[in-house]
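Input structure tokens:
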């Protein structure tokens, strides 16, 4: 039985999203610097969520928010971004509250999102870029059938302003369909 569920952007209150970000600042500082900057305080978080809602309306981004069923607390965030309809590819970015890591929630959240991306969005390829030291995120990609396609050198500016390499994982629709 699942211990979590997923909500869409309309179901997320700015106060609870700000709380999620605020209690995980140290946890996601290196990997989600833009989100942290966009949610530096409550007012900025409201603006961030307003822009996110507009992005959903325009079809340029999609957001999913997992909640703990027992408490109904927001415990994470997944964004489908860099959607390229011409090529049929998109990127996934995600994090889970530090207190919910290691429970398989992110792996299942990504699995559910793959069905949405390949089915509803009609993508041909989904990719995940992760820090070279973020083994947990790399494992999420591998458990969901992604293949490591390479290392992109100095591709990402982390929360400390340093350029770092990222591991690029890709999953093609044909490989997803053969594995599922």
């Amino acid at each position: 039985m699942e211990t979590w569920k997923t909500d869409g952007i309309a179901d997320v209150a700015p106060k609870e999203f700000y709380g999620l970000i605020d209690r995980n600042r140290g946890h996601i500082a290196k990997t989600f610097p833009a989100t942290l900057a966009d949610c530096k305080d409550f007012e900025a978080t409201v603006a961030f969520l307003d822009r996110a809602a507009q992005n959903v309306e325009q079809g340029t981004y999609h957001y999913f928010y997992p909640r703990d069923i027992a408490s109904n607390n927001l415990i994470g965030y997944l964004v489908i971004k860099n959607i390229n309809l011409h090529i049929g590819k998109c990127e996934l970015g995600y994090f889970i509250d530090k207190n919910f890591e290691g429970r398989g929630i992110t792996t299942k959240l990504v699995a559910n999102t793959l069905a949405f991306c390949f089915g509803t969005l009609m993508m041909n390829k989904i990719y995940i870029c992760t820090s070279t030291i973020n083994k947990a995120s790399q494992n999420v990609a591998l458990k969901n059938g992604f293949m490591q396609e390479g290392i992109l050198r100095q591709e990402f500016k982390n929360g400390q302003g340093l350029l770092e390499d990222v591991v690029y994982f890709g999953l093609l629709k044909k490989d997803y369909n053969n594995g599922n």
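Residues 18 and 45 are 6 Å apart (CA to CA). Residues 4-126 form a domain with the Aminopeptidase fold (CATH 3.40.630.30).
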